[in-house]
Amino acid sequence: MKLLIQGENILAQDIVEQAGEIKSADAIYPKHVIEGWRIVDVEVPDGFTCAGYTWNGTAVVQRPPVVVLPTVAEYTEAVQKHLDAKAQSKNYDDIVSACSYAGAPNPFQAEGTAFVGWRGDVWAKCYQVMGAVQQGTRTAPTIEALIAELPVLVL
Fold first, then answer.
1. Total domains present in the chain
2. pTM for this structure?
3. Same domain (yes/no): 56, 82
């Protein structure tokens, strides 16, 4: 297949070169407008699209998938939901409710104290991970992977 290449970009496929222009099925490219262009005749893989592939200088290669990383707000929202869900699994309204029992003598004080410590450990780990990502010393985890890294509640 004949491709119109500019640097690493594949601009068009199935092209025909004429005197002052290059034609593809969906566009006409005036030669004087495209700097550094060239035409290559190469084999392309099944399912080839110009947008899904790039030119490495000798062959067409598939572009790596685009990974959309969670934002800090999405990470913190997920961690908060994790904390609340664990407290709710023990019949508290949310993590704040569970922690409130730590403050005064009552039958649930020990459990409330455990929730307070766990909540602090969870946020400390969360911020440690996010800090390392922001400093570039580790890759960003998925939300599920971050939750899996968090400390486990011990009651």
1. 2
2. 0.63
3. no
Sign of the four-CA dihedral 126, 131, 134, 137 = negative
Q: What is the pLDDT of residue 40?
A: 94
Kindly list the averaged pLDDT for each block of 10 residues, start to end, along the chain of length 155: 93 90 88 87 92 93 87 96 98 98 96 98 97 93 96 96
Residue 108 structure tokens: 């649930």
CA distance 31 to 87: 66
Q: In this structure, are 76 and 143 located in the same domain?
A: yes
CA neighbor of 72 nearest in space, from 61, 63, 80:
80
CA 22 – CA 34 distance, rounded (Å): 10
3-state SS record for the chain: CEEEEECCEEEEECCEECCCEEECCCCEEECCCCCCEEEEECCCCCCCCCCCEEECCCCEEECCCCCCCCCHHHHHHHHHHHHHHHHHCCCCCCHHHHHHHHHCCCCCHHHHHHHHHHHHHHHHHHHHHHHHHHHCCCCCCCHHHHHHHCCCCCC
